[in-house]
Amino acid sequence: MGLNSKIKSLIFAGCSIIATGALAGFASSRQDEKSCEKVSIKIDNEYNNYFIGDKEVKDLLTREGERKLEGLPNRSIDLKNLEKRIEAHSFVKEAEVFRGLDGNIHVSVKQNRPIARIIRQDQDVYIDAEGNILPLSDRYTARVIPITKSASLKLDKVFFQDSTGQAYLSLLRFVEDDPFWKAQLAQMHIDGKGRVSFMPQVGEHTIEFGKPARVEQKFKKLMIFYKEVLPVMGWEKYKRVNVEYEDQIICE
């Protein structure tokens, strides 16, 4: 390619960039001149949680109706500020607020996912899949496993962020994600030494799980107990089943 051809290519590329920028600026200018006529809200209920609804989101957007968005020119609407306002809600994990080609506002909300409920003397709380502590809601009650604990343990956000707490969080996620165990395990208890036990929905036995290690292996052993032992011996036969130790199930 000759020198003149290179220069022409560079000039063409430069003009293309300038033209694209001008068009984008023109489009943005036209958008700013439009007004918002409608606010569309979409809430992700992937996990069938209903902690926040359209009304709550709209109240957050409008400061309880003090500043309605409908009728406002786009140039006076701060989309990032609206996102931050929605994400300040305890049960909102992520929020996206954007403007459509028609000038209207679109809101997309993803909710937090509680995976357990911590029973406390003062006030119960939820814990989500990342170990964050969430308050209870007057609007909706999540069907998650309740956790009781020894008085010496403090199950807070700090606990669930270190390596020890992460193991308990992984155990809770396993239970939440497995349809059978989520339905069968009625309650979880953590004693002063950090050992876990479960009370089942069906049966009078206590499941002694031990520390939250080798989680998948322990549940496989427990499934053998449910499939092969209880149907033969009867659901009322045993008061405790221990899967804490490797390669053995202790039933009494």
UniProtKB/TrEMBL annotation:
Keywords, sorted A to Z: Cell cycle, Cell division, Signal
Highest taxon of source: Bacteria
Signal peptide from the UniProt entry: 1-24
GO biological processes: cell division
Cell cycle recorded as keyword: yes
UniProt protein name: Cell division protein FtsQ/DivIB
Organism: Pontibacter ruber
Organism ancestry: Bacteria, Pseudomonadati, Bacteroidota, Cytophagia, Cytophagales
